Amino acid sequence: MAVANSATTALLVVGAAAALLAVAVVLVVVRSRRQARGDQRRLDEITRQLVHARKEARRNRLLADLDGLTGLHNRRYFHEMLAREVARAQRYGRELALMIVDLDDFKSINDRIGHLAGDAVLAETAARARTVLRSADIACRVGGDEFAVLLPEASGAEAELLYRRLYQALASRPVADAGNVSVSAGIADVRTGDEPSTFFERADEALYRAKERGKGQVVRAPRRDAPSDATRRPGTAGSP
Length: 240
Description:
Blueprint: H1 2-65, H2 75-92, E1 96-103, H3 106-113, H4 115-132, E2 138-141, E3 146-152, H5 156-171, E4 183-189, H6 196-212, E5 218-220, H7 227-236
Parallel strand pairs: 4-5
Antiparallel strand pairs: 1-3, 1-4, 2-3
Helix pairs in contact: 3-4, 4-5
């Protein structure tokens, strides 16, 4: 009888120990799952913060690249893209054109209607320019009333067509409070061996020559591989 009682007691002890162990395992599993859920929540929150930070960084970068008045890209962005596109054109032997545009008599517009109204003219000019640009074109405000457009995979002749579309877009109706306005432009094709500075200088010099001729003029800088273009352009680069 004593042996039987001892066996029974032993079984009860083993059973209790097994039950306690099972409870302990359940508690560990429950705690692990709770901890895992907590860890997942923390991971989700970190991921959300990282996504938000990336979006803010992209937004801030975009804003840093834009001109606040016109919404076009700014001068700093233009020079970054100028260097990139010139290097790309040189590396792959691609066409690249640059057009620099200046509003005619903008100082007199400011004097006549005031600087705030003059700012509205610049903003409206930029808005109309966007309606005639290709998706690949990179339009920037590089000075007070001076704009530049990089045309990847395009020739100077195509840049001239863009100038004429822009001219007509501005001439089609009054611009803000300034009435009818016109623009002049200088155009250059990239040359083999060009640096960004030499490319820009040729377009800028062409703009200077266009402004000397009066309002609504476009001049295309001569290309090294087509000297006849240098003699043709001055005779035909009048108003559109």
